Amino acid sequence: MAFAMFWEILWALILGFGLSGAVQAVVSKKEMRKLLPDDSPRSLAVACGLGAASSSCSYAAVALARSLFRKGANFTAAIAFMLASTNLVIELGIIMVILLGWQFTLGEFLGGPLMVAILAILFRLFLKPRMVQAARRQAEKGLAGKMEGHAAMDMSVTEGTLARRIFSSKGFTAISHYFVMDWLAVWKDIALGLLIAGALGAWVPMDWWNGFFLTRHPFWAKLWGPIVGPVVAVVSFVCSVGNVPLAAVLWNGGASFGGVIAFIYADLIVLPILDIYRRYYGLKISVFLLATMYAAMASAALIIELLLGALRLVPAERHARVIEASIRWNYTTILNIAFLAIAAILLCRFFTTGGPEMAQANGPTAARAAAALLKIAEKGG
Length: 381
Hints:
Elements: H1 2-24, H2 41-52, H3 58-70, H4 75-87, H5 90-99, H6 102-126, H7 129-140, H8 148-152, H9 162-167, H10 169-203, H11 206-212, H12 218-236, H13 243-252, H14 257-265, H15 271-281, H16 283-310, H17 331-351, H18 355-360, H19 364-378
Helix pairs in contact: 1-5, 1-10, 1-17, 2-4, 2-6, 3-4, 3-15, 4-6, 5-6, 6-14, 6-16, 10-13, 10-17, 10-19, 12-14, 12-16, 13-14, 14-16, 15-16
């Protein structure tokens, strides 16, 4: 069942990571911190845009947010960037359309900015300057978390028109490296999410799910879903796009629309990432981030459910592509073959332009390696 789900979304993963790599290839990380000087609506909107143009890896997003904060970006804007990096990215939307339906993608992308706005209000109300100062002192210690090398990697091409940047030798190299590095960053989450989703779909009876999500009580189910959705995410250990298959199981099992959205939002408060917050910013700020992000996620998900429900856009049937998933000769197989050929081309470019060395680099080493590889590519290497 897990492999069948993977086969169902394989072409979409390749397409999503390929598009994400192209966007990252033309967005410079060096300029990001200059665009996030405060927590104004403009800075938060820019943070969401930059986040949507970055890698979907939750760990890389957390590491890059700390890097931006250390280099002078506003703390609220850095956290907004982090939320957008995992909730407004291309690949997430594509996978949600395939497994859950376009209504969930619409809810995700409408609720993401709303979640950031709610979080900014909570930060304005409860985040004290001394807490930010303490977080900065802890961040300056540079304690290791995870994916710092991926976060430091900057192979963006900034010269020439957009088309020239993408289709140049440097652009092709940058896209191939971002494509492979994103896969390396999230493959464990994807595999774990598929395996857990397959196990839950096969072993847990629907009656149990229906009872857990209060399916027989529609009013209370709408309120309960956004509350319990993030809790399920916290204990699942799965983040990034890997939690979408799990979300499909929850939807089939009776979770409310808002509960599924809240579950997907909560990839940044899973237990391993909470421990990274503790190392990056200190225990007090990690607890503060957990509380405020949980409140923002649950509130945004509930509002989106009420909004789309009023517009009659919440799906009436629960047929997420989990139980029925199978492998056969159809358009999915044809698309998989085509996109695997594209992935092979990008892999070839990655391996012939110093990719393995880049994958092993970390922190400042990754930044230097990226710059050196782009110089080689510019010379036609």
